[in-house]
Amino acid sequence: MAESRRPIITLLTDFGTVDHFVGCVKGAILEINPDVHLIDATHDVPSHDVLAAAFTLRSYYNYFPAGTVHLVVVDPGVGTRRRPLLVATERYYFVAPDSGLLSVVFENETIHRVIHITEDHFFRKPVSKTFHGRDIFAPVAAWVTRGIDQFKFGPEITDYVSLSTPKVRQVGPKLLQGVVLYVDKFGNLVTNFTEKDIPAERFDKILIAGEEVSILQDAYAEGDPGEFFAIPGSSGFYEIALTRDSAAQALEAARGTEVGALLK
Amino acid sequence: MAESRRPIITLLTDFGTVDHFVGCVKGAILEINPDVHLIDATHDVPSHDVLAAAFTLRSYYNYFPAGTVHLVVVDPGVGTRRRPLLVATERYYFVAPDSGLLSVVFENETIHRVIHITEDHFFRKPVSKTFHGRDIFAPVAAWVTRGIDQFKFGPEITDYVSLSTPKVRQVGPKLLQGVVLYVDKFGNLVTNFTEKDIPAERFDKILIAGEEVSILQDAYAEGDPGEFFAIPGSSGFYEIALTRDSAAQALEAARGTEVGALLK
Amino acid sequence: MAESRRPIITLLTDFGTVDHFVGCVKGAILEINPDVHLIDATHDVPSHDVLAAAFTLRSYYNYFPAGTVHLVVVDPGVGTRRRPLLVATERYYFVAPDSGLLSVVFENETIHRVIHITEDHFFRKPVSKTFHGRDIFAPVAAWVTRGIDQFKFGPEITDYVSLSTPKVRQVGPKLLQGVVLYVDKFGNLVTNFTEKDIPAERFDKILIAGEEVSILQDAYAEGDPGEFFAIPGSSGFYEIALTRDSAAQALEAARGTEVGALLK
User: Fold this and answer.
1) Is A5 within 8 Å of chain C by CB?
2) Which has fewest Cβ within 10 Å: A39, A46, B181, C90?
3) Kind and range of the H or E run holding A132
4) DSSP C245
5) B56 lies within 8 A of chain C by CB
6) Helical H runs in chain C?
C-alpha cells in the first residue's frame, strides 16, 4: 500500500466532545508539528472505561496505513504512578497510559519496543497533574511524527500491563462458554466467539440471557422483526442482533453477560 | 473558485461516534490514499434513517469545492441485494448505497453517470457482509480520489432508486398543503414550502398542529418568547420556530406532520 | 515553535453534530481555500450558551500554533444588529459575533485590531439571515487564510462587547468569595479561584452547596470514593471533584453556584 506522506495521528479518548479537552490535545500536537493530519476515531468512549477503549482500538487500528501514530487517552489514573508508554510495532506507534489499554496490541502485533516515557523535555510545561493527554501524550505523539528516535523518550521496559482478553472455554464436547465483549450503538451484542471457534457449518445455537438463538444470518437486514439472530460481525466475532432494534435492550444483556454456544 | 489540490472526502453516516466504525472507515480510506483530507459532515444521523440522511446531504453537499467525493453510508440494507453506487455529476462524486439516499442529487444535478459498483478487486478483503462502509464504500471513494476511471468500477445503470421529495399541493385558490421535512437540533420545523411557493409579500399564515402561525420573521432572535413564527430558513425552506425554544416539542410536531399555508 | 505551513482553522460552535450545519460551514471554507486544515474543537456547546462557549475557547485557543484562525459561532443573535468581528492578536485571528464570546481574548491577549466585518463581497451570496456561520463567518475565516489584509473586511472599532469574567472577592481576612465558572463532562466543578488566589500552602477549605471541602488532591484518582476534594485543574482554576463520579450532581451545583474559600 501507499506510504503515508503526511504523518497521521488518530485520537481515541473519553474526553467527550462538549468541553475544551479535545481542542487542547489537537492544539498541543499541531504546535509541535502543524503538518500532522489529525483523525478523530472517537472521543465518546464511556468515561474511564478502559475495556471499551481497548475493544474499540482493536477494531480499527490496523486499518490505518503503516507509520500511523495511534494516540489513546482513557486515563482514570492520570497523575498517579501509572506510566505513560510509547509502543513501536512493525507498522504503528501507540502512545497511551500503561493501563492495559494496549493489551490487544501486545497480543497481536510484533512488538519492536515498549518505552516508558520519562524524558520531560518533550512535555508541555508546566505539566498539569490532571491533563497528561495535553501535556505528555499529545506532545510525545507529535514529536514521534517529527522523527525523534524512540529511545530518546525513556527506557525500554518489559513489565507493562497486559490484560488478557476473556478466553472462550470448552465446557462440553459440543458446548463453548464465552462472554459479551462489547455492545455497539445499534445494540448488537459482540461476543468473544470467532468463526474459528464456531465454523458456520457447525453452528447450532447460541444461548444468552435465557434465549436460544438458533438463526444464523449473513446480513442485519435479513432477520424478521422480533427475532434474534447470530451473525459473524465485522470485528471478527459473532454478534447477537435483532433486526433494526437493540438486542442488548431486548435481552437486558451487557458487556460481561455470559454466552454459551452449542455446536453441531 | 479555487480548485482543490488535496482530494476531499466528506463523510455522512449513522455510525455514531462511540464505536470503532468511523475509525475503520477513515483508516480504510487513508490506507489507499493517505493524502485525502477527511471531512466529518455528521455520523449522528438517526440509525437507518435514510430520509434524514437525504435531507442532511441535500443541505450541505453543494457548498464543497468541485471534485469533492461525498461518501454517504446509512445502509440498513447492508449485505442484501441493494447495490453500491458511484455517481458522477458535473461537480462531485457520490458513493452510497442505492437506497434513495441520493434522490436529491438525481433531482437537482446534471448526472454524468451512475455506476453499479461490482469490480471487487477495489474492495477490502475479506468483504464483511455487515460493514460495506469499511470494505466497499470507503475503498471505492479512496480509489476515485486516486484518479481511477469511473467505468472501471462496474457497469453504468439507469434504474437506480429515486424517491421523490414530498411535493407541495395547491388545495385551494390561496391554500397550499405541505409537510414537515426535517426537525433540526434547535427544534425548528423545516417544511417543504419554498419562497417560490410562498413569496414573502403573499405570506398570510401557516397552519400546523392546530396552531395558526401568522408572524413572519427574518431572524430567530426577533421573536417574542412563547410566540411561534415562520422564517425562511437557510436550506431554502420555510421553518416554524419558537424563540430560543423547540417548536417541535411545543407543537408535538415531527417529520411528516402536515402543514397548511394560507396566501394573501 | 514550528510555523504552520498549512493554514489551520479551528471550529467552535453550538451546531451539534446531527444536522447539516457543520458540513455547510466546512464546505464554505474549503470552497474558498481547499488547503485549510479544519480542526473540530467542539460543536456541542449548549445551544446559545455564550458563557460556556467563552470558557471553552479560553481553555484551548492558546495551545494552537501561531497563525491559527479560531472560528467561533455561538450566535443567538444571528440576523440582528450584533456585529460580526475579525480580531487580530499577536498570535491568532478570531472570527466571531460581537456577543462577548471573545472577552477572554480581549482580557488576556495583545490585541492588534478589532475589525467590524462589513465588506459583503467576501460573503457567500445570497446571505441567509439565519445562518451567518455559513455565509459570513466561514468565508471570512477562509479569506483570512488566503492572506487578505484585515482592513479590507471593514472598519476598525473599539466599542466591541467585553463581558468581565466573574472576579474573586476578598470578603474577610482569610475568606474569598467566588463562583462556579463551568461544569465539565466528568461533573467537575471549575471555580474561578486560581492558584494565585489560593496558594496550595494556604489552602484550608472550600465551601460549596453546604459542603466543606478540606481535602486537596493532585490527581483525580487519588480521592476516596464518596469524598469531595479540591484540585488545581488543567485550565488554571481550582475544581471541586468526586473520584470517578460527578461532583456537580452530588452537590446539585452548577455554573453560577457561589463558592467560598478559607485560607490558612
Assistant:
1) no
2) C90
3) helix A132-132
4) B
5) yes
6) 21-32, 50-60, 103-108, 132, 138-145, 247-251
Sign of the C-alpha dihedral computed for residues A32, A33, A34 and A40 taken in this order: negative
Judge if A69 and A24 occupy the same domain: yes
Residue in chain C closest to A48 (alpha carbons) equals C244
Contacts of residue B199, Cβ cutoff 8 Å, sequence gap at least 6: none
Reported residue count of chain A is 264
Contacts of B17 in chain C (CB under 8 A): 17
Instruction: Give me the percent of chain C exceeding a pLDDT of 70.
Output: 98
Tens-digit pLDDT profile for residues C70-103: 999 998 887 778 899 999 999 999 999 999 999 9
Query: Which residues does chain C have within 8 Å of residue A31's beta carbon, measured at their own beta carbons?
Result: 1-2, 63-65
| Residue (of A152, A150, A145, A208) closest to A176 by Cα position | A208
Of A17, A41, A234, the CB nearest to B23: A41
The answer to whether residues A83 and A107 belong to one domain is yes
| Secondary structure of residue B189 in the 3-state scheme | strand
Residues of the domain holding B173 = 169-263
* Boundary (domain end) residue, out of A153, A183, A198: A153
Contacts of B48 in chain A (CB under 8 A): 244
In chain A, the residue whose alpha carbon lies closest to the alpha carbon of B38 is A39
Residue that is last in its domain, among A153, A184, A203:
A153
pTM of the predicted model, to two decimals? Answer: 0.93
Looking at the fold, whether A31 and A122 belong to one and the same domain comes out as: yes
Interstrand relation of C93-97 and C69-73 (parallel, antiparallel or unpaired): parallel
Residue C187: which of C258, C256, C249 has the closest Cα? Answer: C249
Contacts of B63 in chain C (CB under 8 A): 23-24, 26-28, 31, 134
Q: How many domains does chain C have?
A: 2
Give pLDDT, residue B185.
Answer: 87
Each residue's pLDDT, cut to its tens digit, for chain B (264 residues) gives 344 478 999 999 999 998 999 999 999 999 999 999 999 999 999 888 999 999 999 999 999 999 999 999 998 877 778 899 999 999 999 999 999 999 999 999 999 999 999 999 999 999 988 899 999 999 999 999 999 999 999 999 999 999 888 899 999 999 999 999 999 988 999 999 999 999 999 999 999 999 999 999 988 877 788 899 999 998 899 999 998 889 999 999 999 999 999 999
Determine, yes or no, domain membership for C160.
Answer: no
List the single residue in A with minimal CA-CA distance to B131: A234
The whole-number pLDDT of residue C3 equals 45
* C160 in Cβ contact with C106 (< 8 Å): yes
A247 — phi, psi (to 5°)? -65, -35
Report DSSP state, residue B133: I
**Nearest-10 crossing angle of helices B21-32, A50-60:** 30
The answer to whether residues C149 and C192 belong to one domain is no
- C-alpha distances (whole Å) from C257 to each of A153, A224, C208, C235, C240 are 43, 52, 8, 19, 12
Residue A190 and residue A66 share a domain = no
Residue of A nearest to C2 (CA): A32
pLDDT tens digits for range C160-173? 999 888 899 999 99
Q: How confident is the model at residue A185 (pLDDT cuts 50, 70, 90)?
A: confident
B183 within some domain: yes
Q: How far apart are CA C208 and CA B118, in angstroms?
A: 64
Predicted local distance difference test score (pLDDT) of residue C8: 97
In a domain, B2, yes or no: no
Is B178 found in the same domain as B249? yes
Tell me, yes or no, whether B119 and B178 share the same domain. Answer: no
C-alpha to C-alpha distance for A188 and A190, rounded to whole angstroms: 6
Whether residues B23 and A218 touch (CB distance < 8 A) is answered with no
Q: With an 8 Å Cβ cutoff, is A77 touching chain C? A: yes
Complete edge-to-edge strand list for the sheet that includes strand A111-116: A37-42, A8-13, A69-73, A93-97, A84-89, A111-116
